[in-house]
Amino acid sequence: WVAYENPEFTGEQYILAKGLYPSIEAWGGKNCKISSVQPIIMDIAGSKRGKVKVQLFSEPEFKGNCQIIEKNTRCIDSFALKSSKILDGSCIMYDQEEFSGNQYVLEEGIYPDLTAMGCSPQAVLKSLRIINIELSEPCIALFEKVGFQGKKIEFSTEILNLQFLGYNPRIASVQVLGGIWIIYEHSNYRGRQMLLSPDEIPDWYKVSGYCQIGSLRPLLQKRVYFRLRNKETGKFMSADGNLDNLNLLRIQVAEDTDSDDQIWVYQDGFIRCRMAEDCCLTIVGNLITPGSKLGLSFERNEDKQYWHISPDGRIYSKMKPKLVLDIKGGTQYDRDHVVVNTVNEEKLTQCWEPLVV
């Protein structure tokens, strides 16, 4: 369960697993106030069902009629919304039906009027799309010519004013290599905006309708816990072994055990196991080849500890970009061990489905 300090799922949050909590210290509370609760459910990252909860109001300052939205909505026709609350996650509002027209990205927070949402006071918002979780590190490349030609500039952090930094704001093509990005027409996050997930855009003007980028920033996403289900076997990636001796611990697939050794978190390029968050997923040994096994080790900023999770479910080694996570297979005792193997588009054992907890 998630317990919230304030009503309407706001304020300090406390994650409560099954068990007894005899005092506020036991659940990490600052005081004894809990005003709303909701269960944690299993969801598939990227599925139609989002984890976002949006409240729309017909009047400014959260007054008038209220509509609660938790999924993509092609047409908002109940009333003309004037204020909103994004209680969890992020969404995009559009000023036309069917997810078209100008975009307005709303992150978790409260928006007492249309101006706070980045719209003009006369704007009419007609549709809403949930922003799903993206399990990759932010990286974007901008090109001065169409088709990814000409001068290339690459960013992994927010840029408030592209021209002020000495770059030409006239951009012709874009590659989103990781993360979710908000692109703004003008500097200081002003003007028309567009949300981009990992993709290639060979002609920026054709997609956006404007030929310059003034500022950009990666969308901040909450740290999320997830399980990795193999698409071929249906089994879950697990850490098997004793934490007292990491050298003997191995990563393998197993049936669902509903335990922390099958729950992972992705942050800053590291994949960590919930049962030992000071450790991260690593390739075992110094000679890394197809078939090398995986384990856990303390974070040392080593190249073999960094991973990239692609939209198709493959998990790439940043040290060896042609190697992905796979199941060893065969008939030996280690057939369920997770290894790195050369990318093979036909092998479903190399595809993993993140199930957000």
From TrEMBL:
Query: What is the name of this protein?
Result: Absent in melanoma 1 protein
CDD domains per the UniProt record, alphabetical: beta-trefoil_Ricin_CRYBG1
**Which species is this record about?**
Fulmarus glacialis
Family per UniProt? Belongs to the beta/gamma-crystallin family.
Keywords, in A-Z order: Repeat
Q: Does the keyword Metal-binding apply?
A: no
Q: Where is the Beta/gamma crystallin 'Greek key' domain?
A: 1-41, 89-132, 138-178, 179-220
Domain of life where this protein originates: Eukaryota
> What InterPro entries has UniProt attached to this entry?
Beta/Gamma-Crystallin, Beta/gamma_crystallin, G_crystallin-like, Ricin_B-like_lectins, Ricin_B_lectin
Note the PANTHER family from the entry.
Answer: BETA/GAMMA CRYSTALLIN, BETA_GAMMA CRYSTALLIN DOMAIN-CONTAINING PROTEIN 1
